[in-house]
Design goal:
heterodimer; A: about 180 residues; mainly alpha; Ferritin; elongated; B: about 110 residues; alpha/beta; Immunoglobulin-like; four-stranded mixed beta sheet; 8 strands; globular
Chain lengths: ~180, ~110
């Protein structure tokens, strides 16, 4: 209810496009997220990439794809661990919200798409998705989550993890050039 | 008069004796620290002397390693946050983190 008041359809649509499907800048109407909602989005976004990584580890025969996926699984779990430690310390409960829910709904579609492919087609689909997803998440962290985080420690954590997302994007783009 | 001749002679002798006994100047190995943070090696490029030691300290929140490039002639094991790796440097090397291969560094041994 709160979120339905906060987001209009346009801003939500823009956010989801930014988060999941494209890298275009999320520059128009920004959603207003509370710290518990930001924590939820952060954890969910990392969990989505872990799920994709687990599919790649199980399906790919390409060592560069498998190694990248293992890195994504390990690094994004490290981000979640940091976020969980912080919200535990702050006694904040991550609050489910429309953005987190949409991320999870889109993950179902991505998972279905990835599972329908095999061989080189799978590898290309996975790494293309990783490039787009990291661009989108970086954009949202930089333009929404960091500016809107009220708690200094939460803001600092988001700033701390951002270089890892940039390194992941560069790594994914490096692999993408091979496909 | 005799004393005037005697003193310079002995001063020169002492100096010669000292120079013969003194050992060649030793270069003391230096320990350098490279901090891994924010997905970078800091400093990314380090000039040092052969025999110096580099200690890589992982102050990031994810696991890293240090691997010579391009031949992987030396590599650390995985370094968890807080762990470090000590390397005695014998030659110039390019290296990266093989887990995050866009993280790169260079050790330059001065001639």
């Amino acid at each position: 209810m709160i979120l339905s008041k906060t987001f209009n359809q346009t801003s939500l649509g823009l956010l989801i496009c930014s988060l999941v499907f494209s890298s275009f800048a999320f520059s128009q109407a920004k959603p207003q997220l509370t710290d518990p909602e930001i924590a939820s989005v952060a954890v969910t976004a990392n969990q989505v990439d872990i799920t994709n990584a687990e599919i790649a580890i199980a399906k790919s025969k390409d060592s560069s794809i498998v190694q990248f996926a293992e890195t994504m699984k390990r690094d994004h779990q490290a981000v979640i661990d940091q976020a969980v430690a912080l919200v535990t310390k702050l006694k904040v409960t991550p609050k489910d919200n429309a953005v987190s829910q949409k991320l999870l709904a889109d993950e179902v579609k991505t998972k279905k798409m990835l599972e329908s492919k095999s061989g080189k087609a799978f590898d290309k689909a996975y790494i293309d998705n990783e490039v787009a997803y990291h661009k989108a998440v970086i954009s949202v962290i930089e333009t929404v989550l960091i500016p809107e985080a009220q708690n200094a420690e939460l803001k600092a954590l988001l700033q701390k993890v951002l270089p890892a997302f940039h390194a992941h994007l560069e790594h994914a783009e490096m692999i993408q050039k091979m496909y | 008069m005799k004393l005037r001749k005697f003193i310079p002679f002995h001063l020169v002798s002492l100096l010669l004796l000292y120079s013969c006994n003194s050992e060649p100047e030793k270069i003391v190995p230096v320990v350098h620290t490279i901090v891994i943070s924010s997905m970078r090696f800091n400093p990314a490029e380090l000039t040092l002397q052969k025999g110096d030691t580099v200690v890589f300290v992982n102050k990031d929140f994810v696991v890293h390693d240090i691997t010579q490039q391009p031949d992987k002639t030396w590599t650390s094991s995985n370094l968890s946050p807080g762990q470090s790796y000590k390397l005695a440097v014998r030659a110039s090397s390019d290296y990266n983190c093989s887990i995050h291969p866009t993280m790169k560094g260079r050790l330059i041994v001065a001639q």
